[in-house]
Amino acid sequence: MKIVIVDDERHVREAVRLLIDWESLGISEIHEAANGQEAAALIDSVRPAIVITDMMMPVQGGLDLLAWLQTHRPDIQKIVISGHDDFHLVRGTMQHGGQDYLLKPIDPEQLAGALRRAVARWSEQDQSRRQALARSMEINQLRPVMRDRIFSDLLGGGDSYGHAQLALQGEPVFRQSSACLVAVLDLGSASSEVAERYAHNRDLLYFTLTNIADEVLRQGSRGIACRNLRSEDEILIYFWIDANWAGGSDAAVQALLSEINDCCLLTLKCRFDFGIGIAQPFPKGAANSYQAAKAALRDRDLLAERAYYYRSDAAAVRASAAPRLEEYEESLRLAVLSGSDKQIRDAASRLFADLRRMPRISSEQFERWRTAFAEMLQRWRAAETASADGQQRSGHSPGDGSDEPPNPSDILPLDERGRLDLDRLETAFRDFLAAWSRRRAAASQQSQSAIPAVIRFIEQHYNKELTLQDIASQFYLSREYISRRFKQETGENLIDFLCRIRIDKAKLLLGNPLFKIAQVAEMVGYADEKYFSKVFKKLTGLSPNQFRKNNA
Predict the structure, then answer these.
(1) CATH number of the domain at 2-128, out of 3.40.50.2300, 1.10.10.10, 3.90.1010.10, 3.30.420.40?
(2) What pLDDT is stored for residue 153 in this prediction?
(3) Is 65 strand, coil or helix?
(4) Rg of the chain's alpha carbons, rounded to an integer?
(5) pTM higher than 0.85, yes or no?
(6) CATH code for the structural domain at 451-550
């Protein structure tokens, strides 16, 4: 801590130095000035916590210095030592934030007491400043999440945009626009290399893609890009349509999307598919534009040469009979249980032979296949959990230590012309089932604890709807095992930990008076405002409203 002593008499400055045990007060630097003008320059340089000043000095007196401090450095603690018992000077001291007015000759006890009070006030204010800075930094980290939430919520047809403008005042993403066009970047169309590279770090992929798109859109304020929190595999692109940009035309929109895709190719060595909606009134029509873009993506013919840009006006619902995975599940399950690579190959070949007979496979049909495959695996995992009596299953093959191949439902293998490569998909499907069979046969009862990864997962996904079963499924663990193990390793119940993380984040968001309690609840993962309030009060002893008032 630093202090500046201001007095035109040198012997007074030396007396102040000698009268006080500065080390006991935590003051490590003492600086001196002979008048207010000299002191102002010194204060700007050394930035002290406390200033002790005389009142009557040449060039610039104490009252002028106090006025300058009140304007430029109001946080500094101010103590006056004067030889004049003058009401005008005392009143001026108080008006300009002076805390103590001491008379010469200096009383050591009075000066020491004044300094102790000044140090205590500075320390208290410094702690408050540090807390406010930390809080501000965390709020700024949450701002991108707020933006994603606001623009994702528009897709539900809600009317939250007006409040959103206030909540993120100053954000360049907000502008007055009478119409918008929503496009959707489909992360599921990524190359297998990109899908594998970011399989365990999806947030980094979202961050990279939104930054690429924003960089292109920022030129001329053409729109914004954000993560769609209502979908696991989408980046939303809002194009602003107004009188300043006749760019709502098909050619202008596709030109910008093409530029974004070129940047994706340069950065990620991969292009993506985009669904293009229709121009609609903003903000209320955003949901309609989004649905049109989704319809265009759903109707992509994956067996046709890849176009990358799909328009809603070209979308047509075309029904064609597709093999249902459920019809093949039993033969696939028995092949896995047999442990025979030949039986697995034969069972997979029968399914893919039927797929190859289809004249077209739409993206929507492929998504249904992915969903059916995920449900099939869930049933198999549930059966294994029951047979293992709740013991942990390893995510790797303990027999040979090799990594599990990519889940075939998570990739979209394409040939050199951008068409769905059924040969590669069949190979991935067969390899996955073979690896599953090997893991089942060689499953080990011993594996490293997954609890640190569980904690990271919760901290990254606290704002989503999470249940114990969701978390257990994410790590291929039984609910009983993960619940027991989490308590053993952390001393806290898993659900209690999740609630605590959510409430900590809620406390920060409640500091913004423009967010309603219901919005804060939803942003930290609670769909029910009343339940959120009940949990909040249980953990803090205050209702959200009381907490907000106490910390206003």
Answers:
(1) 3.40.50.2300
(2) 86
(3) helix
(4) 33
(5) no
(6) 1.10.10.60
